[in-house]
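How a chain folds remains the central question behind the approach discussed here. For one protein, we set the task of working out the structure tokens from the amino acid sequence alone. The sequence in question and its structure tokens are set out directly beneath this paragraph.

_____
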Amino acid sequence: MKYRILAIDDDKNLRENLRCALEREDYAVFTAADGLSALDILKENDDIDLIVADIGMPRLDGLDFLKRLRAGGSCIPLIFLTSRDEEIDRVLGLELGADDYLTKPFSVRELLARIKAVLRRSKPPAAQESHGAKRILRGQLAMDPERFSAAFADRELKLTITEFRLLSALAAEPGMVKTREALLEAAYPEDSYLSDRSVDCHIKRLRRKLSDATAPETLIQTIYGLGYRYADGREEEA
């Protein structure tokens, strides 16, 4: 079954170049010139596997498009394309829920490599990876790797694969400090070029989802200069 990719960019030539490159890799491709048109496509196609989107677009730019996408509960992975060489755009995109980004001009080969990596980590773990994995029960947190489900205080946590892996790595050893490097390895075992900043952005989103499920703010603690840790029982109850 082909992966289905939505490419969004107001540059017609770039859209068509993306379509040709992706179709050569046997992807099914949809294209849109702006965020509003892309939302219409998503309403009619609920099985899109990945989105590649420009940040600077008319009518609805990439950042506002992503806000609407995530506010609606969608976890479709998204890779941003941006011609702005400004860290604030890249960081804001990650904090809003983007999975990766590329700065224009970029090589098609690198984009294809990143698409493959994001698609790998966006799917539930393979059967051999999760089979026999133990459930994690930490106070009011319950995680089941085989069903790829998580809940806090009996409230479902709608986590991406990356968020699930990060929370699993932290909750498996409460009280132990996990460096960003260790968390990168746990969350992105297939990738080698992601930055520590990606971990920080995913942790921020994870904390927000836990907070919405009534988890205390101290559940995931920042250990400055080192990384993060999941609070042990005493800290969680405090």
Remarks:
- Residues 196-212 form the longest helix (17 residues).
- The first strand starts at residue 4 and ends at 8.
